Amino acid sequence: MTKQEISAFLREVRHPAREDRDIVSLNMVQSIEVGEARVCVTLAFPKKRDPLAEYLVGAVKAALVRHLPASVKTEVKTVVEEDSARKKNDVTSLDDSQISGVKSIIGIASGKGGVGKSTVAVNLAIALARLGYRVGLADADVYGPSVPVMTGTEGLTPEAETDEEGREWILPIVKFGVKWMSIGYFAQKGQALIWRGPMACNALKQMILQVRWGELDFLLIDMPPGTGDIHISLVQDVPMKGAVIVTTPQKVALADVEKGVSMFRNPNVNRPVLGIVENMAWFTPAELPDNKYFIFGRDGGAKLAETFGLDLLARIPLVQGIRESGDEGEPVALGSGPDALAFLELARSLAAKDVG
């Protein structure tokens, strides 16, 4: 494998904020080292720290993995000029002072995937906005970002701006009265983000702390499913007021929720669980709106909430319109049907916690 061939692979990596030009034509590839069963690429970020640095590193890694044999070890390094602007925008310098205008940061979590956590997070954000609150949502599910599709903002790219002190900020996408941010806005369609824990944690930190959210009553964070190191790092770096845990009624989901509750209550995390949301609580067909079919079990979320001394914030029915509206980019919470009313009930329950 020659350096020229590696360079050709890297032309697939485009910088979303630079007129979608590739990193080679932007002179961001400082060097390519090719050794025996090893390739090392060094990216150069001139003058200022690029707010998409972590994304670009991950994209380069993905491009190399796609084209090189599995036996070849790949490495991506970065070089940034040591100036004051770089220090201000380095991910390690980010802290919660950048989100001082946000009153309450709430994590939307789940013990496992497939329970509709992102659907609940998106519709809850819109329901809170309908109630008059200033709301933002950060899509922290880096391995499966779904907010762009669910909000009809797929294909849009957030802009960046530099303040008077030379610090760079990412501007969120605004739609339905909510400010949205997701790593999905920066990844090419169909691209897998091949990130280890530290890289993912740094990218998430940028997606939350380097965004110009402005004044918000609620900033919801759609967290990755599970209870891994990303969750712990996220809680340590971001001043969350608490978390809402989404579950479905069946036992296999409830067992994982217990782990999630235990994680937030761990002394090293120590964040209150504000309540449980029982999603897919029952199925109601459109032609029989008064009928309820408990196909995933009954009252599982309520029993779990009672066991842990938590509030059951809402029960969300399984309605075909919720799935269809999410796929079409028009969240169901925008409507007036029973499914929309369920999310408004959830928004009122959360707001009543007086965390905003």
Task: Please supply descriptive tags for the structure shown above.
356 residues, alpha/beta, 3-stranded mixed β-sheet, 11 helices, 15 strands, elongated
3D structure, described in words:
The chain has 356 residues and is of the alpha/beta class. Helix content is 32%, strand content 24%. It is built from eleven helices and 15 strands. The strands form four sheets. Strands 10-11-7-12-6-13-14-15 form an eight-stranded mixed sheet, with helices on both faces. A three-stranded mixed sheet has the order 3-4-5, with helices on one face. Strands 1-2 form a two-stranded antiparallel ribbon. The longest helix has 15 residues, at 53-67. The protein is elongated and about 65 Å long. Residues 83-93 have low confidence and may be disordered.
